[in-house]
Amino acid sequence: MDVNWFFPPHDGLRLSDLAERIGASLQDETAGDRIVSSVAPTYRAGPRDICYMLQRRYRDEFTTSQAAAVICDESVASIVPPHIPVLLAKYPHTAFALAGAIFHPEALRPIQNLGGQSGISPAAFVDPTARLEDGIDIEATAVIGAGVEIGSGTRIAAGVVVGPGVRIGRDCTISAGATILCSLVGNNVIIHPGARIGQDGFGNAPGPRGGMIKIVQIGRVILQDHVEIGANTTIDRGAMDDTVIGEGTKIDNLVQVGHNVRIGRHCGIAAKVGIAGSTRIGDGVMIGGAAAINGHITIGDRSQIGAMSGVAADVPAGERYGGIPARPMRDFLREAAEIAARANLRKRKTTTGDKQ
């Protein structure tokens, strides 16, 4: 790949120092003085790049690799060519993530400073009643409403709209074009471009002459500390209670979170998931892409929902569910295997002319 000027390489770090910082051990200590400055996939890693490998089946990628070192565990270390030093880690994926953060900290948050300046742009509108701590960046065309409170270190990008009374904590990043209404936002929260937070949820009652009558939505959205919200994701405010996203939860792009939903701490929700109103999701839950979650159900702590599943009823804590309707993953996989086996049997009978 050509030189990437969007994320230029680090000034450089000794391999031994990197190993210490990411909690890995360097197998060949004589390689400790090698300088590394970036991350790259194994197949095209160069002499100053660090890479990682999780499974032996990708061993062919080493044939073109000139990596400064590879992060892996003991099960993979034996297939690494002798010219590539090994950084042994119990959790290679985590160690690689730490290395990436060291070399490219600017890539951990959405790109800001579009106007090339810091502080509050004269082309931003900030209501005189807003309360802003020191050290805040607000870019051109952002709108900060009446009574807003924003903590130090927070960056508001171009085109952001922060509605009246919203409170945003410290060291947050609110990306271009996002809107935040009727919300309380904690510290170190990242909101990616185009996200919509705090608009009214979908609630209607049958009208006396047909049609529907809108039900007022007077709750809030609460984003706790270290939450990340993906691009073009929408989180509706509560009808009368709050919609709550728990500490450390990461939500991907294009996710819909309905009113009164409560999501626990340290959950991971992949793109295109839809969560209907008043659902309760526990701590540490992982939901695969394009899953649909019914309203007014509970998904227990540490459970996992497979991609493209349709969850119609409660999911017990610690379970893995998949399919439509979602059921325990072992049942879903067994049923899928049985259907495939029957289809193959019918195909063989057709091929051989057996009509029985």
From TrEMBL:
GO molecular function: N-acyltransferase activity; UDP-3-O-[(3R)-3-hydroxyacyl]-glucosamine N-acyltransferase activity
BP GO terms, sorted: lipid A biosynthetic process
GO cellular component: membrane
Pathway(s) this gene product operates in, as recorded in its UniProt entry: Bacterial outer membrane biogenesis; LPS lipid A biosynthesis
Catalytic activity line of the entry: a UDP-3-O-[(3R)-3-hydroxyacyl]-alpha-D-glucosamine + a (3R)-hydroxyacyl-[ACP] = a UDP-2-N,3-O-bis[(3R)-3-hydroxyacyl]-alpha-D-glucosamine + holo-[ACP] + H(+)
EC nos: 2.3.1.191
Residue stretches making up the UDP-3-O-[3-hydroxymyristoyl] glucosamine N-acyltransferase non-repeat region domain: 33-99
UniProt signal peptide: none
Alphabetically ordered keywords of this record: Acyltransferase, Lipid A biosynthesis, Lipid biosynthesis, Lipid metabolism, Repeat, Transferase
Active site: H259 (proton acceptor)
Family, as annotated: Belongs to the transferase hexapeptide repeat family. LpxD subfamily.
Function: Catalyzes the N-acylation of UDP-3-O-acylglucosamine using 3-hydroxyacyl-ACP as the acyl donor. Is involved in the biosynthesis of lipid A, a phosphorylated glycolipid that anchors the lipopolysaccharide to the outer membrane of the cell.
Protein name in the entry: UDP-3-O-acylglucosamine N-acyltransferase
Encoding gene (name): lpxD
